[in-house]
Specification:
Largest sheet: 2 strands, antiparallel
Shape: globular
Number of strands: 2
Number of helices: 24
Low-confidence stretches: 12-28, 62-71, 507-638
Helix content: 40-55%
Order of helices and strands: HHHHHHHHHHHHHHHHHHHHHEEHHH
Radius of gyration: 28 Å
Distance between the termini: 69 Å
Length: 648
């Protein structure tokens, strides 16, 4: 058998040399051993297969399949998109200071050294590693998505291009170069997987979730090609490289099982066909009680091994037993968090010395609350286990669902305030604000007997979520669409007058009685200059979003002390004035799943038929965040079916 394999490999190499000569390609004479090794790879065996391993060992063949076979033309083309070193260094530093902590894809000291070597090689005219060139471009692309205002203004002013144009240029150049690298002939598997994963993350930050899912699949296949999924094929590597391979596999596996749950898509990986080695400490902090930046990845992988199969089962079995099992596992996992990462009374002594710690604390707890909420959603939206309908157990699970959702939104708001405004494209945080708020909308809609626990807090949470999404709609397409859809849902909720007041709706009858026509000059309200939900000049004067301008002719109203307390009333932060909703008949069914194609036309028509005193805008007709954005815009990244809501 071995003789036949070798004969076949040599015959393929002979054919390759004939083709090589016929195209009159010039270059050094190929090393026969490397060419034979490449021929074995072309037979299709995985690099980790016993056949390849035995043959290479028996014939003492090189493990290098590709050598320097990559044509320099794709690299030269990609170099046209690399900025001068001074700007590239700025972007690499910004990546390591900000964007990298979200997944910790790159080890900072290693990336810094790699970039230094890359620039030295370019200056010396040496052939550049194509994978590293891709990584440098993807790092710049990711970094440009997370720019503080000062750095953004500097780059845009001096380079003459918008940040969005730059990030797209870097990303596209990296994709084109990456596509030119023959699979199976990769010089550095770690760098290859890093740059492919960053490509997937880039799509995610741009809210292009279908592209992100497919790009993640490419990163996973590259990792599997090099044996990362089984922690194999690495005996000849240094301990550092072995650790980096384990880290990378944990990162992309976490992304795979979590994204598959969000998108209701199949996982790319098979948990039964992999060996998950949890990351260990490479970083040398002097304080052992402070977790390393990779700790969040390790914790998520730890719980993922346990609950990812349970969540897949939840798709066709929402039994009470499964719900309670997931809850128990997640709570047990949260109890293992060290004091610096806990959500309740965390130890913040190290926050200033290690800026990544508060980021990791917020990130990990948002993930944890989302895991708790997942199986409880059914009990909030009228789709719970039929066997416990109307029982005390259903009420208890419903109350737990409300608490989990409110905890998720509270944690998400803290995270939002921490990362605003540079990281507003961080899809993770906007998604969970939107997801939690829409679940609460469905819970209110199904609460026909008004027994939902903590209704006032639920309504206030909706107001805060709307405020946060609206506040960054000028910075993120995801926020624009999310705010528009959330507004559409809120407008049709059957709320009491008290709840409308909490939400910011004015009592129109009281307005008519007072007859006041006090207006806010130039459509502005006072707001604190550092408020993340309002942006404006340093004077603190903030322009009203268009959808709030129906309140620019607002009237004074008697303040309810209890409401003031609930809202932490501050004259500098006036409530958002949503248009009073028209009266709608909504139907909610436990059996029917609504169509995602329910558009806003019917809403728009009825809104136009309502009287609107004092010249207030027609609901949903004039808006900077138009509610005419159809729900289909989000259906590729979010499952509308579970809301169990039928909008008009």
């Amino acid at each position: 058998m071995w003789i036949m394999l070798l004969d076949e490999a040599r015959s393929k190499e002979k054919a390759y040399h004939i083709l090589y000569r016929s195209k009159e390609q010039v270059g050094p004479t190929p090393d026969p051993e490397i060419e034979l090794s490449r021929g074995l790879s072309r037979l299709g065996y995985a690099p980790t297969s016993d056949t390849i391993a035995f043959t290479r060992k028996a014939l003492d063949l090189s493990m290098l399949d590709g050598g320097k076979s990559i044509n320099s033309e794709p690299v030269n083309k990609a170099l046209g998109s690399v900025l001068p070193k001074i700007y590239t260094d700025m972007l690499v530093k910004n990546f390591l200071d900000v964007a990298n902590y979200q997944y910790y894809t790159c080890f900072p000291a290693q990336l810094t050294a790699q970039c230094s070597e890359w620039w030295e090689g370019r200056a010396a005219g040496r052939q550049l590693n194509p994978e590293l060139t891709c990584l440098l471009l993807q790092v710049c692309a990711s970094s440009t998505q997370f720019l503080e205002d000062d750095l953004r203004n500097k780059l845009e002013t001096e380079l003459g291009d918008k940040a969005q144009t730059l990030t797209e240029r870097f990303h596209t150049a990296a994709l084109e170069l990456s596509a030119s690298i023959p699979r199976g002939e990769v010089q550095d598997a770690i760098i290859m997987v890093q740059q492919l994963f960053l490509a997937a993350v880039w799509y995610k930050y741009e809210a292009k979730m279908i592209e992100a899912w497919h790009a993640l699949g490419s990163a996973i296949r590259a990792a599997q090609e090099s044996g990362m999924h089984k922690d194999s094929n690495s005996d000849a590597l240094s301990e550092f490289d072995q650790e980096m391979r384990r880290r990378l596999w944990c990162i992309i596996w976490n992304a795979d099982w979590q994204m598959s749950g969000v998108l209701s898509r199949p996982v790319h990986t098979d948990q039964k066909d992999m060996r998950l080695g949890l990351p260990s400490r490479l970083e040398g902090n002097a304080d052992p009680e402070v977790p390393t930046p990779i700790a969040s990845v390790a914790y998520q992988a730890q719980i993922g091994v346990i609950i990812s199969p349970l969540f897949r089962e939840l798709g066709h079995n929402n039994s009470v037993d499964l719900t309670l099992k997931i809850e128990k596992e997640v709570e047990k996992w949260m109890d293992t968090f060290p004091p610096v990462l806990r959500d309740y009374r965390p130890n913040k002594d190290w926050d200033e010395k290690y800026p990544y710690v508060p980021f990791m604390r917020c990130q990990l707890n948002v993930v944890a609350y989302s895991f708790l909420l997942g199986p409880l959603k059914a009990y909030l939206i009228g789709a719970s286990d039929l066997e416990i309908k109307g029982t005390r157990q259903e009420s208890d699970l419903r109350a737990k669902g409300v608490d989990a959702c409110l905890d998720l939104l509270d944690a998400a708001e803290r995270f939002y305030k921490l990362i605003y405004p540079a990281c507003v494209k961080y899809f993770f945080i906007l998604f969970f604000i939107f997801d939690g708020a829409t679940v609460l909308c469905s819970a209110l809609a199904h609460d026909l007997d008004r027994t939902l626990p903590k209704r006032d807090r639920v309504v206030l949470a909706l107001r805060n979520s709307m405020d946060l999404l609206e506040g960054v709609s000028h910075l993120s397409q995801t926020a624009i669409i999310s705010a528009a859809v959330l507004k559409k849902l809120i407008i049709v909720l059957p709320l009491t007058a008290h709840e409308r007041m909490i939400l910011g709706w004015e009592d129109r009858r009281k307005r008519i009685k007072t007859g006041s026509n006090t207006s806010t000059e130039s459509g502005t309200l006072y707001a604190t200059s550092n408020s993340p939900a309002r942006t404006g000049s340093s004077s603190g004067l903030t322009s009203l979003p268009e959808w709030d301008k129906c309140a620019s002719t607002q009237q004074s109203f008697d303040r309810d002390p209890a409401l003031d307390s609930a809202l932490e009333f501050n004259p500098a932060r006036m409530p958002i004035m949503l248009p009073e909703p028209p009266e709608f008949n909504m139907s909610f069914s436990d059996a029917e799943v609504p169509s995602t194609n329910s558009g806003p036309e019917h809403l728009h028509e009825q809104a136009q038929m309502q009287p609107h005193p004092l010249g207030a805008d027609v609901p949903a007709a004039e808006s900077s965040v138009s509610t005419e954005v159809p729900l289909e815009h989000l259906q590729n990244l979010w499952d509308w079916g579970y809301l169990n809501m039928e909008l008009p």
